[in-house]
From TrEMBL:
This is ornithine decarboxylase. It comes from Agaricicola taiwanensis. Its EC number is 4.1.1.17. It is an enzyme of class 4 (lyase). GO terms for cellular component: cytoplasm. CDD domains: PLPDE_III_ODC. InterPro entries: Ala_racemase/Decarboxylase_C, De-COase2_N, De-COase2_pyr-phos_BS, Orn/DAP/Arg_de-COase, Orn_de-COase, PLP-binding_barrel. The keyword Acetylation does not apply. Pathway: Amine and polyamine biosynthesis; putrescine biosynthesis via L-ornithine pathway; putrescine from L-ornithine: step 1/1. Keywords: Lyase, Pyridoxal phosphate. GO terms for biological process: putrescine biosynthetic process from arginine, via ornithine.
Amino acid sequence: MTDRIRDFLATRRPDGPCMVLDLDVVRDNYLTFARTLPDTRVFYAVKANPAPEVLKLLADLGSSFDTASVAEIEMALDAGAGPDRISFGNTIKKERDIARAFEIGVDLFAVDCVEEVEKIARAAPGSKVFCRVLCDGSGAEWPLSKKFGCAPEMAIDVLEHAHRLGLVAHGVSFHVGSQQRDPEMWDRALEMAAGVFHACAERGIGLGMVNLGGGFPTKYLKDVPAVEAYGQAIFGSLRRHFGNRLPETIIEPGRGMVGNAGMIQAEVVLISKKAAEDEVRWVYLDIGKFGGLAETMDEAIRYPIRTEHDHDDKAPCVLAGPTCDSADVLYEKDPYYLPVSLSIGDKVLIEATGAYTTTYSAVAFNGFPPLKSYVI
């Protein structure tokens, strides 16, 4: 917890669960990415945290933006970014949304099939497209599914189809999985990307850009390598697979940009057992999966949790949210150890929650309001 967050919680004493984000941390994170990968453009993944204050800070620092919808495009524009600093990175887009983005001035689009290429050719003629290639995401704590991307062999055909339809076949993208703690995972993906570059060149199509995606982690319970380790590994792989003719590169950090900048303050609503002889307590908080902690699904992301009683003895407990839905259990397979002295009404601090919390928070499931957000 930063001193600024600590002071905010102590003086404002907000009611109900809330996420407090420190912009100074976001600034430091951006400058670290920019310094570590100086020849790579940063396209912040807006979906991680679209708070206007975050977007404006990053726009002022020179960041570009990876967007998934027209609404996110408009947020980036409102923050001060020009359309030349915006990528429509969702591979699943309505044709009218493509047309609207193109009307606004956006001309960089993600694709992963010929059908999407054809929509862009009709709605945004002459635009640049990059094809997302499937990546298995092994080693990531939040692996991405096969929902996005295509096989490398298909990517070649997709890019050639775009070229034939008058679009600019601009490059290749991939994603090594969110919260990727192994910097070497970019090597295999870059080898694959280089293969697509080579095959397209043989067909007379000169690609120019590799989108290295996101995946840059934030620290939860496990240590993660420093950004510098990722920069060194990525640069080494680029040299190895592309030689001296390095492509333009971009990255799309989201979690790595804002995750460690935020903290959620929550309250213990109930502590109980299911049977008198049970050793494991159930601790219910006033926030759960539907209140912003969706990434606890399958217990993938394990957030650090702090209390005022952490100096006391601890015992295992099941951690759950407040809603009338049996899926709203955060950690049960691998119980959390919390102080035995923890009581109803105590505050708990859930660390590293600046990313994918406010955006995953339900509007009003069970009547609970969306997660409050304070940016300081």
